[in-house]
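Sample pair:
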Amino acid sequence: MPTDQQQPLSGVTVLDMGQIYNGPYCGYLLAMAGARVIKIESPIGETLRGAERATGEGYPFCMLNGNKETITLNLKSERGQELLKQLVRHADVLLENYAPGTMAKYGVGGDDLTAINPRLIYAAATGFGQQGPHSDYRAMDVTVQAMSGVVAITGYEDEPPLKSGPALCDILGGVHLYSAIVTALLRRATTGEGAVLDVSMQDSVIPTLCSALGAYYRFGDDPPRVGNHHQAKAVAPYNIYATRDGHVAIICIREGHWRKLIKAMNRQDLVDDERFSNMATRSENMAITDEVVESWTKTLKTQEVFEVCQAQEVICAPVQSISDVLTDPHLIARGALQKLEHPELGPLMIPSTPLRFQGLTPPPVALPHAIGEDNKAVYGELLGLSADDVEVLKEASAI
């Protein structure tokens, strides 16, 4: 979208064939960094567009697909495939997150399209990668969480495993796809060569297991589910504590943090208590440590606990609900959340990009375009097609 500033990826043209969360989030990051992102959907629209409302976009679609132009193309049509081959001649990047082999099946895979445009960055995101024994497994966020160990370590030891609340595999996969694309663009600036990229959601989420992996290598066995405690049960206090009207998160990772918490709680009697003398003893006495902390937090309201901890430089945060987050004055002041009026869904708070450059303001957040809204403009500009030509393509079910 136009701004009065030169955005970092200005001049880069992206064909976004992403669907659901993973690919579209990558495309959104590229658009908010200044790239021209052209979302390519099937003639009936991508799956997420109508997932929540039969006649319009649900919130996730709005969140992930603003600031993009929108065209339609029927990948199953020979004329549609030819259109895509023509479009990539004018593109720097094509991103997709279909199942492995889908694009190649229609003659428009990475090798096919980079043969047409050797400078093209063909970026494919999948659940488990393009190669390997599991590459053909069907993937959604919850199944990738299951295969990645995330579900196994989430929850409480004496209860069934749980998935993580957020769609972390989809979004982390999109972030890694973005970073791979930008890395490939940087290499192309030196070599002139394009690239075919293979980014796996599972690969992307494995690094989030750092504490669990540390616990595994420390104890030589699968770590148990630990609820809100540290994965290796090696840090205390480290928990979610009840207050008079909610909950707070408190963690002490250094001895100085514990001393500051003692001061915040006005419990100087704990200074010489051997049960809490260092991290090891506090971890050994984790239940008692938690009891001491929560006996204090329960006497105060959440905001009071937070303010006392802030004053004493204790690492603490209130547990915010989704409604709290959407009205968070900090996020609003930073422009991380922006308010838009949707014609069907009403007022929405939409996340902006987390990528910030000093001296640059990201483009304002915009709503997604309607299905095929930019067909005439994009096909006319890039391929020189007239409005009548576009209508013929539509009648032929190519778009």
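The longest helix spans residues 168-191.
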